[in-house]
Amino acid sequence: MNDKIHIVIVDDHPLFREGVASILKAEPDIEIVGQGMTAPEAIHLATDLLPDLILLDITMPGGGLNAVKAIATACPVTKIVMLTGSEAEEDVVAALKAGARAYILKGVSARELVGILRSVWAGEAYVTPSLAASLLSEATRGAPNPKAIPSPLEKLTERERQILERVAAGDSNKEIAALLYLSEKTIKHHMTNILQKLQVHNRVEAALMAHDEKQTQ
User: What is the longest distance spanned by two Cα atoms in the chain?
Assistant: First the structure.
């Protein structure tokens, strides 16, 4: 294929990194164009090669978050994917705020990983469903604070809240449509409304906004 997805993998565990590379190399539409072990190497590879995707571990030498910030600023064309073992909520939020487009746990299956990377390359954002659900759950938990500034989430209709909950659980538009007995076109329309009401760019940012609103209360 001419239009291959160019990927760089940076992880300080050679066995894991080479395993991921081996899995991805088997896909006809994916090409591994570089590998590294540290944050400085990640930044150099990103700026030198401008890959479509770069996979980073959050705990790599030099700091994965430092690499995310630098790459997001210098190479906006490159989509950053965190592939890490950290389930810490603060790591998820920090990585996404720094510019990562996806946050994937290392326990993911090979087939799932390939599918996620293709969807991120196509413009989607992704967070491992259990982590996304946890963020949204914490953000909406507890009694409302009457003195707090009204949350943008209050602008959402009941149907839009249902859809946002399913998005946070990792469902695609097609899956949500089937679950709610609606057309996929209708779900897309609702998603457009949700993003506009919350003034965010994608579904992950919507869940993060809910999380931030809770933190400020």
Answer: 58
Location of structure tokens 């949500």:
176
| CB-based contacts of 146, cutoff 8 Å, min separation 6 | none
Per-residue pLDDT tens over the stretch 36-77: 999 999 999 999 999 999 999 999 999 999 999 999 989 988
| H/E segment holding residue 31 | strand 30-36
Spatial strand order of the sheet with 53-56 comes to 30-36, 5-10, 53-56, 79-84, 102-105, 126-127
Phi/psi class of residue 69: alpha, beta or left (left: φ > 0; alpha: ψ in -120 to 50)? alpha
| Tokens read off for 166 | 């399913």
Give the separation between CA 72 and CA 59, rounded to whole angstroms.
18
Question: What CATH number does domain 133-215 carry, 1.20.1740.10, 3.90.930.12, 1.25.40.10, 1.10.10.10?
Answer: 1.10.10.10
Positions in the chain short of pLDDT 50? 1, 140-148
